[in-house]
Design brief:
The complex is a heterodimer. Chain A is mostly helical. Chain A is built from 11 helices and 6 strands. Chain B is mainly alpha-helical. Chain B has 5 helices and 2 strands; from the N terminus they run αββαααα. Chain B has a two-stranded antiparallel ribbon. Classes of the chains: A mainly alpha, B mainly alpha.
């Protein structure tokens, strides 16, 4: 589609616009919710910014982990093509890594300054699928994270940095973007009805893990890593669901 | 009734209450410097250096805003966020190189 936008002499990745735009929209939503709850603005903005740092670092680390087997196999080749190695190491990020980085950074901030966790998570959780919606639109415009090859349902990319050009692929990026939009609306309404209970984040994690597990079957890009028939994100989704089930069972046993 | 602080104009209204000016902490100053340097370097030189400056600036700025709030801490925090956003284009998804490698070695 349109992986780059040219403004005069500048060529900027389209995904940068969608990512920053999504971040701005999500930040506005969080600030409006924080004012309504109310939560201290300094802590909300601090936690959000540190979460963004965690998102960048976590997404990059998981990306490097998923490509490690390919890097090992191709190490001799890459040592002779260091520019290619630099491009591979510096480009790319994985959503789940970014999500865990975000959650970890925010959790650390709230714990470090002895702030109550539930209301902050209720405020932040709906913003995650809202941000992700924009990210997936960026993936579609980028031509990455594409779906399976399909003549009837596919869209062929004329300009792409990931999908082979001219072959129609199912636009799973747009499907996931739409699902994230629905997820955002569900979480927003749920949070209004269960304010301050801290249930919004577990609901998001459970619903998104189910969604992602299913959507991964529609993906066509093998670069994301396949392990014993399931993709990296599917294994992570299963792990999240197991943790949530264990947590729910543990609470029932204790109380 | 006037006291010395009011005569010296060291008070400014904040949410209807008068609060004394906090002197900017070294952490706030560092955050502001990193934010500004990150913006400039990210735009004209190396986006990765700008990204690192922005990330460190955010961490220091958030600490300064929480522990020793001041306008400089806020400024450093905002500049560092801008620096991170500008330089973030450096790590945007670009899988063409990886796709080529996978096709050769997977």
């Amino acid at each position: 589609m349109y992986p780059f936008i040219t403004l005069g002499d500048l060529t900027i990745p389209t995904m940068w616009f969608t990512t920053v735009g999504g971040g701005v929209v999500a930040a506005i939503f969080v600030l409006l919710r924080a004012r309504a709850l109310p939560l201290p603005m300094v802590d909300v903005t601090n936690a959000g910014a540190l979460g963004m740092v965690g998102l960048l670092i976590g997404g990059k680390l998981l990306y490097l982990l998923t490509i490690l087997p390919v890097l090992i196999r191709a190490w001799a080749f890459l040592m002779q093509n260091t520019a290619l190695l630099a491009e591979i190491l510096t480009s790319g990020t994985v959503f789940y890594g970014g999500l865990f980085g975000f959650l970890g950074a925010v959790w650390w901030y709230l714990r470090h300054y002895h702030l109550p966790q539930p209301p902050f998570w209720d405020c932040l959780a709906p913003a995650i699928p809202l941000f992700h919606l924009f990210g997936r639109v960026g993936c579609f415009l980028n031509g990455c994270c594409y779906g399976f090859e399909s003549q009837s349902l596919g869209i062929a990319f004329s300009h792409s940095i990931g999908a082979p050009k001219g072959i129609p692929y199912f636009p799973v990026q747009l499907v996931e973007a739409a699902c994230n939009g629905v997820l955002f609306l569900i979480l927003w309404q749920y949070e209004k009805r269960h304010r301050g209970q801290g249930k919004t984040l577990p609901l998001y994690l459970g619903l998104y893990a189910l969604l992602r597990f299913c959507l991964e079957f529609l993906r066509g890009d093998v670069v994301r890593g396949i392990w014993w028939g399931l993709s990296t994100s599917q294994w992570i989704s299963l792990g999240i669901l197991l943790v949530l089930l264990w947590r729910r069972r543990h609470r029932k046993v204790c109380c | 009734m006037y006291d010395d602080n009011m005569m010296n104009n060291n008070f400014e209204p904040q949410n209807g209450n008068f609060q004394p000016h906090q002197q900017p902490s070294p952490i706030a100053i560092a955050s502001l410097v990193l934010g500004i340097v990150g913006i400039i370097v990210g735009l004209v030189a190396n986006a990765y250096v700008g990204l690192i400056c922005g990330i460190v600036g955010i961490v220091l700025g958030s600490k300064a805003r929480k522990e020793t709030p001041s306008p400089m801490a806020d400024g450093g925090f905002i500049c560092s966020i801008v620096s991170t956003c500008i330089s973030g284009a450096a790590i945007v998804c670009a899988l063409c190189a990886l796709g080529t490698l996978v096709s050769l070695f997977a």
